[in-house]
Amino acid sequence: MIIKTEHLTYKYGIGTPFEKTALDDVSVSIKEGDYVGVIGHTGSGKSTLISHFNAILKPTSGKVFVDGQDIWQDDKTERIKARFKVGLVFQYPEHQLFEDTVYNDIAFGPKNMGLSGEEIEKRVMTSLEFVGLSKDCLEKSPFELSGGQKRRAAIAGVMAMSPKVLVLDEPAAGLDPRGRDEILSRIRDYHKETGSTVLLVSHSMEDIAENANSIIVMNRAACMMHASVPEVFEHASQLEKIGLDIPQITRVFISLHKLGYPVSQNIYTVDDAEREILSCLKGGGARD
Amino acid sequence: MIKDITLGQYFPGDSPIHKMDPRVKLLITLEFVVLLFVVNNFYGFAVCATLIVAVTALSKIPPKTVLKSIKPLLFIIIFTAFFNLFYGGGSPVFESVGWLRWLTWGGIRNAAFMSLRIILLLVGSTFVMYTTSPVMLTDAIERLLGPLKKLKVPVHEFAMMMTIAMRFIPTLVDETDKITNAQKARGADFETGNIIRRAKALIPILVPLIVSAFRRAEELADAMECRCYNGGDGRTRYKIYSCKSRDYVAICVMLIVTASVITLNVLI
Ligand SMILES: Nc1ncnc2c1ncn2[C@@H]1O[C@H](COP(=O)(O)OP(=O)(O)OP(=O)(O)O)[C@@H](O)[C@H]1O
Ligand SMILES: [Mg+2]
Predict the structure, then answer these.
(1) Is A193 helix (H, G, I), strand (E, B) or coil?
(2) Residue B154 placed within a domain
(3) What is the ipTM of this complex?
């Protein structure tokens, strides 16, 4: 278990009239090398949860373990280590760009880790490739880039720290469909090539189904489910009750299955769907 | 979190005090402040204190919160009280020799009198802040200063600036929080090192903050222009304040308090 929380509870604004329980007794554990999707309604506590993974927020009660260490147990060193082990890309990360050039901005994290100049350069180059920015961007000011490019530069800034766990809060929010697919596939490649753990927070079941292996479903400050993708989608009606939906394509296939077509119910992407339909047609296809 | 230092201390609620016309609230508060300087005996203060207790109960603001408004000036209160102890005149408390000779009964009375005045002043004037949202407050100020427009004082523009500034303080505080966290996640360290290092560590926060403030300002200006905003002339209002019965009741109560204070002043 690379990350684990035990009875994690967090309240905003304790002692003010605005007090709000954003996390209520959440216990989850995340396997090393997994690709986890975190889904939930607006305000369900997703961002609050992930901010605990690298000690940005201090639990009101409960414990957070990173790599087996309780990060709030003793002195600061564990928390500083957690910062570098868990790379957090916040919502709208392009708002954090500040350096004069893209290169310097991506290098900010590695520099803070105290790496050598050579190593920093290597990391900047690899992460630039991961997010798919061209090399001519490096000497530009980050404020000259387009919105999508800024987003990528900011993600590269966290990837360059080579964290064991990469956590992304809605990395595709506010991008056009193509930009969204591009970023998500880049993240998928990053996961495959580095073997690191990835957490993807998203509103879109489609995005999560296409990418993740397991899903954490947040609802009203609590973790409602944490299971593999097919297991979670088995509870379609429960998901619907909290205002979430299984991917459209999955719903189509469940209906087809109910109508008696010999198709699988665990279809999450259009590509899979195509394959399944083709094989179904080849196999004679008709209703039994 | 930085969020704890919100400006103003608006305490949302639904009480009659909250619902009062903010103009009336402001004027009554002003009157109350003046009244505190008119009072020349303890009975007068008792009347004022009763009013405050009643308003606290009505507004449903926790008494603890109300008393907290004294805290920032506690030092000044103690300081004033201490010096007043020795400048009161009258008979000494202790007949012994030495500097204690200067401590007089009159001094003690003066000290208590001055501290009470400051405390009541603080507590009384913060009710407006507690029960009126900043936006309503500037609105009320604009309305009250309205006559100055005739003298070409840009009251509307000034009030608009104030409103926008107040509206954006929480947003900017939020933004600062977010950017700080994002940079912390990249290993930025704001807590160690000497002053110069720490000041330098603020650059990763300040640059994005200023960039975003400008972006917001531009967006807001565009949005206002798109809705044909062109200054205060000829604008009608969305919220029209009108004095309701509760406002008249408040004014009457205040008149009664004022009358009793003045009567007590004359009688005693
Ligand atoms: N800084 C804050 N101060 C006070 N309350 C907050 C703060 N941040 C979040 N909250 C509250 O905590 C709850 C959980 O917020 P959180 O940001 O974790 O939700 P989320 O699941 O990430 O939502 P979204 O999908 O909209 O990003 C919300 O009800 C929100 O109002
Ligand atoms: Mg969020």
Answers:
(1) helix
(2) no
(3) 0.82
Q: Are strands A69-70 and A61-66 parallel, antiparallel or unpaired?
A: antiparallel
Residue in the block written with tokens 């999707």: A37
| Set of chain B residues whose Cβ sits within 8 Å of the Cβ of A97 | 208
* Whole-number Cα distances in Å, B265 to A124, A242, B114: 79, 66, 16
d(CA A98, CA A63): 33
Q: How far is the CA of B155 from the centre of ligand 2 (A)?
A: 40
Within 8 A of B11 by CB-CB distance, chain A residues are 17
Interface test with A, best of B2, B184, B186 (most A CBs within 10 A): B186
Residue type at position B250: A
Of ligand 1's atoms, which has the minimum distance to the CA of residue B174? 1
Chain-centroid distance, C-alpha A80: 21
- Determine whether B88 is exposed, middle or buried from the number of CB atoms within 10 Å of its CB (0-12, 13-18, 19+): middle
Q: Provide the CATH number for the domain formed by A3-236 in this structure.
A: 3.40.50.300
User: pLDDT tens track of chain A, all 288 residues?
Assistant: 889 999 999 998 887 777 889 999 999 999 999 999 999 888 899 999 999 998 888 899 998 988 888 888 877 788 888 888 899 999 888 888 888 899 999 999 999 888 888 899 999 999 998 888 888 888 889 888 888 889 999 999 999 998 999 999 998 888 888 888 888 999 999 999 898 999 999 888 888 888 899 999 999 888 888 988 888 888 877 888 888 877 888 888 888 888 888 888 778 878 888 888 888 887 765 554
Q: Let me know if residue B68 belongs to a domain.
A: yes
Ligand nearest to the CA of A21: 1
Q: How far is the CA of A221 from the centre of ligand 2 (A)?
A: 12
Quote the Cα angle for B183-A4-A267, to 5°: 95
The range of the structural domain enclosing residue B16 comes to 2-132+243-267
Judge if the beta carbon of residue A43 lies within 6 A of ligand 1.
yes
Token pair recorded at residue B99 = 């500097």
* Number of structural domains in chain B: 1
Indicate the domain borders of chain A.
3-236, 247-288
Strand order in the sheet with A165-169: A86-89, A165-169, A197-202, A35-40, A214-219, A222-228
Residue B183 within a domain: no
